[in-house]
Design a protein that fits this description.
Order of helices and strands of chain B: HHHHHHHHHHHHHH
Low-confidence stretches of chain A: none
Structural class of chain A: mainly alpha
Shape of chain B: globular
Mean pLDDT of chain A: 91
Number of domains of chain B: 2
Largest sheet of chain B: none
Distance between the termini of chain B: 28 Å
Number of helices of chain A: 4
Number of strands of chain B: 0
Number of helices of chain B: 14
Strand order of the largest sheet of chain A: 1-2
Number of strands of chain A: 2
Oligomer: heterodimer
Strand content of chain A: under 5%
């Protein structure tokens, strides 16, 4: 991983990040489009959750990880405290793996 | 933004959540540093990447490509595709970076999945701003220290998968986003988008499936565009949205409702 590759990735990533804050001032977005943007954020994050929970290297991630995330989801719906949610997710996955579930 | 007044703006619960996310990401960051170094990369590589790129998923992916013998361009392209989602996030949180150039230039760098999610959770403009900056800056500091320590520890850090840490990242994001799914107009496209992303994963390079989830927004987008001509001043229904734009003088708002370059 040479330095120029790191700089290239850094510059491109920064461009993605900066475009919104800079262009947003010059654009007048309607209420509907504003709402659409925050919906888009939720859609992207949930898609990220689903792919991160279920897949690994284009294949199925195995049962242990999605089981942990599922436990987290149930706990969130039951309004469990946030630390418990995260610890329960990691703990479920770790225990399942300890028991030989991939 | 002044950090101390930002801390006062947020309730203790949110601050605790941010601290916990930092802790979880610290473990992931340490494993990133350790994986890169034990894979044979010099220690400055993960450290420089974390400072300059500061996007965990793309860092893992790029290092993964490099360690698998892929070329540097392949590593860069993989990382950039993964980070393309930061573009819509930037538009969604742009209101918290209003004001001077310094805020935009610095704030943009600490835009991550987590800081976008914490911002999304807050409705009040002040709280949005505070959540973004506290989460963004805290994560930046914690992530970089953790990566450095992980790189120094190298192979001494064991398999983080055995600790179930790979489930922690999706769990954290889920906990942050789930409240916004109470609204059906958000839940339906989110569920459909997630299904599209998972179904597309076997066939597309990493990062693209998540972007493909935006297809689920097409019906809502068409509705929004169709509705706009009728709503020139119909913003009374949502005073909060209105308040978020207070940095824009009212008189400057044109009657044309569609996105329009000045």
């Amino acid at each position: 991983m040479p330095l120029f590759a790191i700089l290239l990735l850094a510059a491109g990533t920064y461009g993605f990040r900066l475009a919104g804050p800079v262009l947003r001032d010059r654009l007048h977005l309607s209420e509907g489009l504003e709402r659409l943007l925050s919906t888009a954020t939720a859609v992207l994050l949930i898609a990220l959750v689903a792919t991160a929970a279920l897949t690994q290297a284009r294949g199925f991630a195995g049962w242990a990880r999605p089981a942990g995330v599922l436990v987290a989801g149930v706990l969130v719906l039951r309004r469990a405290p946030f630390p418990l949610v995260v610890v329960a997710a990691a703990g479920t996955t770790a225990v399942l793996r300890l028991c030989g579930v991939a | 933004m002044d950090m101390r007044s930002a801390m006062r703006t947020l309730d203790r619960g949110t601050l605790r959540h941010i601290a916990l996310v930092c802790l979880a990401d610290a473990l992931v960051g340490a494993s990133f540093g350790a994986i890169a170094v034990s894979g044979g990369l010099p220690a400055w590589v993960p450290v420089a990447m974390s400072l300059l790129v500061f996007a965990g998923g793309s860092q893992f992916a790029a290092v993964g490509v490099a360690l698998a013998g892929g070329g540097p361009i392949a590593a860069v392209v993989t990382g950039l595709v993964l980070n393309a989602r930061l573009l819509p996030f930037g538009f969604a949180v742009a209101d918290v970076l209003g004001g001077g150039w310094r805020a935009k230039l610095l704030g943009a760098h600490v835009l991550t999945d987590e800081s976008a999610a914490f911002t999304l959770l807050q409705r009040d403009p002040k709280a949005r701003r505070a959540a973004f900056w506290i989460c963004g800056v805290a994560l930046f500091v914690v992530w970089n220290i953790a990566v450095l320590l992980g790189a120094l520890a190298g192979g001494a850090i064991g398999d983080t998968d055995a600790l179930g840490l790979d489930a922690a990242f999706p769990a954290v994001l889920l906990a942050l986003v789930l409240p916004s799914l109470a609204d059906r107009s958000v839940r339906n496209p989110a569920v459909a988008g997630a299904a599209v992303a998972v179904a597309a994963t076997p066939f597309l390079p990493a990062g693209l499936p998540v972007l493909l989830a935006l297809l689920a927004l097409v019906p809502a987008a068409r509705a929004a565009l169709r509705r706009t001509p009728a709503r020139t001043s119909g913003s009374e229904a949502e005073p909060q949205r209105e308040a978020e734009q207070e940095h824009e003088p009212r008189s400057e708002r044109r009657p044309e409702p569609l996105a329009e370059a000045r």
